[in-house]
Predict the structure.
Amino acid sequence: MARTEDPRIAVVIAAYNAALTLERAVRSALAQPETSEIIVVDDASTDVTAALTESLAKADPRVRLIRQSRNAGPAHARNAALNVATAPWIAILDADDYLAPGRFAALLTNAGDADFIADTLIRIPDGAPTPAFTPDPRVLGPISFEHFVLGNMGALKGPLDLGFVKPIFRRAFVEQHGMRYADMRLGEDYEFYARALALGARFLMIGAAGYFRPSAKAHFRRTIPNATFRRFAIAIAASLRSARSASPNGARWISMRRAWIVACNGGA
């Protein structure tokens, strides 16, 4: 942690009708010594998600509940949490996922000057033990904008699914660039990471696996609806324009723009 020695992390959980899994997610975050706050945003649930969060908050003051008046999707819920978070690092945790013990310590130990640092997301079949993990050498070390968008669009040798990782990231970076999640219900993570990379974020992948996703969520939709992709394109193109105006390195901007054009055309 070259820029700061403060290891505090705010865990952001967007929750909609998550009563069956939320406690597991929250307790996995509470078990991380670096967790200073857990902000659960109830996205107008119709079950007991809010009541469960209130119960968890009574047991541990690090847990905080924000209630949305209408269901607006995970991006809107995460933005509500980002607006009130105080820790120098942010971690996104889905309400039906959970963290391995020691995950945050491993990420922070390797963070260096990174703005975003991630490990591998592991998909676990129901009732199965945690599988053995072998790091993919294609996604170790620094991740560039080009590597990120081409890998996710399949222009490299097989899709890398980097858009599904859940890095911790520096709150100072997103505040400096006025970043919030785009208003979309699908692919908001991918768009957020690509936009950060276009704006110059240092993104690092380490050879560990500390984020677990149950098999019920293990089958991801591979086809992005046209309307969603248009939102991707508009947001990321705007970030590339910002990068061009902010950086004197014209060759760097051209490389990013070329990668995005190739990705938009399916890797052709």
